[in-house]
Specification:
The protein is an alpha+beta fold. The protein folds into 2 domains: 182 residues, FAD/NAD(P)-binding domain, CATH 3.50.50.60; 156 residues, D-Amino Acid Oxidase, Chain A, domain 2 (2-Layer Sandwich). It has 11 helices and 19 strands. The strands form 3 sheets. Strands 1, 2, 3, 9, 10, 11, 12, 18 and 19 form a 9-stranded mixed beta sheet that branches.
Length: 364
């Protein structure tokens, strides 16, 4: 059901979703499929503009979403490098990742969401909202709704405007896209590199139409992507290749926020801190819990079901072990221990396999 125009400049709908990313589109699509009138607002001028993610999908996400084959490239193996570039190959029978052409994937997801009946307005920024008796009015837009979802990323303005919690533990990620080459192989290459990527890792992904080279580091640390690219020159020979695009963004790794909802407002995806604290993967979680939120909002508005926030909180995994692993990785010199042999390759392989191929909560 599409939102109704109650005058030239006014729209009334059941649900407004701020953010047409993975979380927002999943929520909007599901809520529209359930018969709600849904409006999505995004400040970008079009879907797929200014991508800020590597866009790798875990197997479960790819299977669930039925992404068209031309938008993905299968990756069966992970190669993990120590700081001196010794490597171990990890592989798990019948597990894989999908690199994506993320800009086109976002256009595909936006089209699917529109097909389900939601309206999406690009080029419209959320600027706060005020409460009426049983609706919310969005400032400066003439839009009223019964329920509002903030799917507006790690630094959510919806969270700020409703006094909800904000993400405080953040990694900063950056990525350069290079012309592809045969030498990149078909593995996801991950580098333990405390010099250039303190607190996280560097990576090389043979993507759909480009090779993506990136790293993430603690927000306050100095991340050096130029130094990282130079340090892997002997493996990939990147200096002779054209850089096609540069991008970056913040990744919340502090876990799901304590207060991510209140009456008639709910945060999902990065806005709510729904990212694996260890691997920093958030796409599958954004999509999965966005969809769950869409269902729960329909139940709440149409059938008097519980607040969607309580439904999402109950379903969200606790991830205590991943938080512990994140804590350890932040504090223990894993890369140095591997290099000096304190951490044996065999033990490291087993730990790394748990990180990359944990099928129950597999999030990259
Ligand atoms: C460098 C990098 C690499 C990553 N690689 C991976 C990976 O390979 N695999 C993986 O699973 N995860 C990865 N992540 C994490 C993943 O990208 C996020 O968890 C995921 O994109 C979260 O989706 P989302 O919909 O919650 O938020 P977002 O994708 O951030 O979408 C938020 C949307 O809200 C819009 N918006 C923001 N503010 C407003 C406003 N005021 N008004 C209107 N619209 C607004 C934005 O324009 C945006 O479209 C990576 C992150 C980074 C930074």
């Amino acid at each position: 059901m599409t939102p109704t125009e109650a005058g030239t400049n006014s729209t009334t709908c059941d649900l407004v979703v701020v953010g047409a990313g993975f979380a927002g589109l999943a929520c909007a699509r599901r809520a529209a499929e359930r018969g709600l009138s849904v409006l999505v607002l995004d400040r970008k001028s079009e879907p797929g503009e200014r991508i800020h993610t590597t866009g790798i999908l875990v197997k479960e996400a790819w299977e669930e979403w039925a992404v068209p084959a031309e938008l993905v490239r299968r990756i069966d193996r992970v190669r993990v490098y120590s700081p001196s570039h010794q490597s171990v190959d990890l592989r798990h029978e019948d597990y894989f990742f999908m690199a994506t052409d993320t800009a086109r994937l976002m256009r595909h997801l936006a089209a699917e969401t529109r097909r389900a009946g939601a309206e999406i307005r690009f080029g419209e920024r959320y600027r706060g909202a005020s409460r009426n008796s049983d609706t919310l009015s969005l400032n400066g837009s003439g839009v009223r709704c019964r329920f509002l979802v903030g799917a507006d990323g790690a630094q959510s303005e919806v969270a700020a405007s409703f006094g909800l919690d904000r993400n405080l533990r953040l990694l900063k990620g950056m990525e350069w896209e290079f012309e592809p080459s045969e030498v990149d192989g078909d593995s996801l290459h991950c580098f333990l590199d405390p010099k250039h990527a303190p607190g996280y890792i560097g990576w090389v992904v043979p993507g759909v139409r480009a090779t993506q080279v990136g790293l993430a580091a603690h927000r306050d640390a100095r991340a050096d992507i130029g130094g990282f690219v130079a340090s892997i020159e002997s493996i990939f020979g990147l200096s002779g290749r054209r850089v096609l695009e540069k991008r970056g963004g913040l990744i919340p790794v502090g876990g799901v926020l304590r207060n991510f909802f209140r009456d008639r407002v709910l945060l999902v995806g990065d806005a709510a801190g729904m990212v694996s604290p260890l691997t920093a993967g958030g796409i599958h979680k954004a999509y999965r819990f966005g969809k769950l939120a869409g269902d729960a909002i329909a139940d709440h508005l149409e059938r008097g079901g519980p607040h969607p926030g309580t439904v999402v909180r109950r379903a969200y995994p606790r991830l205590a072990l991943k938080h512990l692993a994140r804590w350890s990785y932040d504090r223990l010199p894993v890369a140095r221990a591997l290099e000096t042999g304190i951490l044996t390759r065999d033990l490291f392989r087993r730990l790394a396999e748990r990180v990359f191929f944990d099928r129950l909560n597999g999030q990259l």
